[in-house]
Amino acid sequence: MIVCLFYHWRWQGIYAYHLLLAYIYDNRHKRKRQHKKYDYDAFVSYNTEDEKWVINDLLPKLEDEYHWKLCLHHRDFEPGRSILDNIVDNIYGSRKTICVITRHYLESEWCSKEIQVASFRLFDEHEDVLVLIFLEDIPAGYLSPYHRMRKLIKKKTYLAWPQEKEKIPLFWLKLHMALKTSEGKVDEDPILSVIVPDEDQ
């Protein structure tokens, strides 16, 4: 029990630190980006363990078929700059952030930083700038240490990668529509609505 509390408090401390850091970067970017156009349609936040799906499925569909311009770590980060600077600049330089959520993602320190910056921008700007894709089923209990994530998915529509092949075309259509929205909430469109699993399930 004591060990669990220790890791819980440690995670909360790390989160608070990076939230403050995101706030500092946010103020800086507000001043810098008053008249700046976006460099990308979406920044893709994912764990390297899930890179195969991103490269083989997500990238061809969104860039080649739908002609969205994506920002990917391995391809678009500026060499010589710190990883954190690249993360913040590219999230704010993109209209949206797509987070590909898996167990690997939730266990990654850098993925945690990315979704913290993206969620802070969402809460601060009050615009639809974040798209969550659950690539696998994540039990609600598994999200218990990630209070901000759970709060986010309780309030916001997210997309789940379907197990049935016949449902995959509808998934891509929903994602395409989510990227097309510029302001407001995604769940205002009924085609994007999904059921958020109950905490006790």
TrEMBL record:
An example of a Pfam family matching this protein is TIR
Compartments reported by the entry: Membrane
The record's annotation in InterPro entries points to:
TIR_dom (IPR000157), Toll_tir_struct_dom_sf (IPR035897)
Q: Which GO terms describe its biological process?
A: inflammatory response; innate immune response; toll-like receptor signaling pathway
List GO molecular-function terms, semicolon-separated. signaling receptor activity
- Whether Membrane counts among this entry's keywords is yes
**Superkingdom per UniProt:** Eukaryota
Q: How does it sit in the membrane?
A: Single-pass type I membrane protein
Keywords assigned by UniProt?
Glycoprotein, Immunity, Inflammatory response, Innate immunity, Leucine-rich repeat, Membrane, Receptor, Repeat, Signal, Transmembrane, Transmembrane helix
What are the record's GO terms for cellular component?
plasma membrane
**Start and end residues of each TIR domain:** 38-179
Would I find GTP-binding among this entry's keywords? no
For this UniProt entry, which segments traverse the membrane?
none
Q: PROSITE patterns attached here?
A: TIR
Q: Which family does it belong to?
A: Belongs to the Toll-like receptor family.
Q: What is this protein called?
A: Toll-like receptor 22 isoform B
